[in-house]
Amino acid sequence: MENTAVVATDLETILRVAVDAPLMRLFDYLPPRGSGPEPAPGQRVHVPFGRGQRVGVIASLASESAVPAEKLRHAQAIIDSEPLLDESLRELLDWTAGYYQHPVGEVYATALPKLLRLGRDTAEPEQRWFATSAGSDIDLDALTRRAPVQARILAAIRQAGNGLAAGDLELARDSWRRGIVALEEKCLVESRAVAVPENEPLPGPELNAAQSEAVHAIRATDGFAVSLLEGVTGSGKTEVYLACIREFAERGLQSLVLVPEIGLTPQLVQRFRQRLGVPMALLHSGLSDSERLNAWCRAADGSAPVIIGTRSAVFAPLPKPGLIVVDEEHDASLKQQDGLRYSARDLAVWRARQLNIPVVLGSATPALESLENARSGRYRLLELPERPGRAQAPEVRLIDLRQRPATDGLSGPLLDAIERHLRADGQVLIYLNRRGFAPVLMCTGCGQVTECRRCDARMVYHMRRAQIVCHHCGSERPAPQHCEHCGESLTPVGQGTERLEAALAQRFPDYPLVRIDRDTTRRRGEIERRLELVRSGEARLLLGTQMLTKGHDFPNVTLVGVVDADQGLFGTDFRSSERMAQSFVQVSGRAGRAERPGEVFIQTLFPDHPLLTRLVRNGYHAFALDALDARRDSQWPPFAYLALLRAEAARREMVFEFLEEARVAGAGLLPRGVELLGPAPAPMERRAGRYRGQLLVRSAQRAGLQRFLTGWRAAFEPVRSARRVRWSLDVDPSELV
Fold it and tell me: What is the DSSP letter of 199?
């Protein structure tokens, strides 16, 4: 622990440095010896750390230190002549570290691209590729016969009048990197370092009355306000974003747009570029280190009026802040599940308040917390109740699997509907949130099922790979032919997307089918390639998991089939019903988004389940109001505040020894309104060969929870058992598993 005796240091200014280390503190250093940039908060600095050297960030300056003067070491060099992180961003990072009870140095590291964490200089102008004279004259048909990938890349470059950057090429072709190298070697393209160009924006559709009212309300906002934009699927929320962002760009201000999934960014970026005509910075994990650095620097110098990114983009620099948008604000992907467990949505709201700018949270199925904030007046509710134009909400029908049993997961009524829509030149989307061929391999003799040797879970059968795979720890092995207990044969039970793909291909061989799940989209750019097959109309049947429920626009889809609506009806987490309802509404909303009417068929063994019937008859908002009443009665969020202490170890007794010591340490600190629940095993106690347990903290007040957590962590962190387990503290957990 740090020495708490304050020692006055009259020699020099003290640098308080955030170093990427798992310790809840800043580290004190003296300035570097010799001449160099004047130390200032926000600059990166090389410092000695242990026996090595680290790159840290000066968080603040001080005139005294708790470290004795003779033990203070000099920093080695200040890297930046000017602060890299401004005061508002440092304030955000400091608050994040405190609220989420996470080491401040790791929080600062999260906010910087990898190359900046390694001490690299800031970016040079963006590289863009242009066709050479030879590339402009070459016969593309001839090149296509020899090298089709190169031909498609060259065609995209030739079509773009101002060249293409790496992000543009990502949209054009998933395997563009090898193709661009080959084209450069043939002198058909060349790269140049140029400023990011602007293009002439394309006009958008005329806004309807509800969209216009929402745009006016957001534009007229003076200072901080949270607008919850609740619009039915296909109601044109993105058009509202675009109209508002255009207004702020014309004022010379930046807009930050957060999306939950990397798969949503290419489609969104392409649409924003066409409609706004301004430079944009793209931030997500699919970028190379240099691409991410370039985008970060364009945000930092203000040359990018629009920043679009996934979760971590909430920490992007905003020297000219104007607007923050969180699309699909309900999505669980906006909550980090390891390391720094932050909510990008909640940080976006906090940051907007800090910067005194408006923030828009958009969703067809808002989180219950957001709806309660709107109901209580903390958020302003803006509603888009209808689809624009002549598009209508789809008709929803329940298929009772007790009366109409399914073969390979597909019932007769659903198969008939698929055939009818395909013959009418529509596209069909089939949804099943389960990968693989079958979730179970069962013995026909003794009834045993194949189980993971490292988890409390069953192995999933993947027929094409001839393997059984654990979807929790990733372990896999060849699929056995006979039961290891009695020697009888094994049979696959249940359906996954792989099995459905085979069944649909056999039943509808004349209609191209594309499957989108984690197994088929592992390669870089593959998800965008497959989505383009759907948007172009080349694929008529679309099959996939929850990856398809998140904001994609498929205007030609006229039928959605939900193969198994029962997966989320009986979950153990208090959010299970909310998530099931959100998935149901989101995937149903893919149907009938254009002028053609849509239908939704839902297969279930429980057609009278109150959740399903409420959703079908009255919609998501009515379900949400009922769910909020139930949450209030049971004192779950948003009517209580939670933190979860998780622990795992190779032996079960080690987990519960630590959790019990943590409980005892907390019991003496509990203020009124805060309670400890547990310890208890995790819902899946053994995972990846390690045992897991948890201890839940529930509080009636957020401030009371925060005060307790600060003292509690300091009390249990030094105990001996804490060093024998892996533990984490998750504030506002999105799931209790």
Answer: -
Can you tell me whether residue 512 is helix, strand or coil?
coil
Pairing of strands 358-363, 225-231: parallel
- Model confidence over 357-406: pLDDT tens digits? 999 999 989 999 999 999 999 999 999 988 766 556 778 889 999 999 88
Tokens of 558: 């006229």
> Alpha-carbon distance 129 to 154, whole Å?
10
Predicted local confidence at residue 573, as pLDDT: 82
Collapsing DSSP states into helix, strand and coil, what is residue 691?
Answer: strand
**Tokens encoding 214:** 């929402």
Q: What angle do CA 89, 91, 97 make, to 5 degrees?
A: 105
Confidence class of residue 44 from pLDDT cuts 50, 70 and 90? very high
Q: Which two tokens stand for residue 345?
A: 């949505």
Query: In the structure encoding, which two tokens stand for residue 153, read together?
Result: 């890349």
- Give the C-alpha separation, 577 to 569, whole Å: 6
| Structure-token match 């008859």, residue found | 617
* Strand pairing category for 406-407 and 410-411: antiparallel
* The token pair that represents 141 in the structure block: 């048909």
Q: What average pLDDT does range 581-594 have in this prediction?
A: 78
Q: Give the C-alpha separation, 36 to 371, whole Å.
A: 53
**Contact between residue 432 and residue 561 where contact means Cβ atoms under 8 Å apart:** no
| CA neighbor of 560 nearest in space, from 587, 584, 537 | 587
Q: What are the tokens at 544?
A: 């996939």
Structure tokens at 705: 């929870």
State whether residue 460 is helix, strand or coil. Answer: strand
Using CA atoms, how far apart are residues 77 and 35, in angstroms rounded to an integer? 10
Cα separation, 306 vs 326, in Å, equals: 13
| DSSP assignment of 605-665 | S-TT-HHHHHHHHH-HHHHHHHHHHHHHHHT-TTSSEEEEEEEEESSHHHHHHHHHHHHHH
Q: How far apart are CA 640 and CA 648, in angstroms?
A: 26
Whether the Cβ atoms of residue 34 and residue 115 lie closer than 8 Å to each other: no
Whether the model pTM is above 0.90? no
For 300, other C-beta atoms within 10 Å of its C-beta total: 21
Weakest-pLDDT range from 191-205, 211-225, 462-476, 645-659? 191-205
What residue has token string 């459905």? 500
